Input
Amino acid sequence: TYDINELVSYKVYNRWGQLVYDNPGDITQGWDGTHKGEAVAIGVYVFVMEYIPRGTDEVFLKKGNVTVIR
Output
């Protein structure tokens, strides 16, 4: 877990690099595994998150993946 003071952005991409989720900084919202109102296919998705931790004004970048299973 991260002690996040501010979420700058959170984006999720499919394996072809298509943006399937774009959160422009609302820390209360997360990705629900859908794109344009439809459930995404089972598979691995890449996320890119920019955030500012508590106690600093510096923007950090975190990249990783999430696997969707149903």
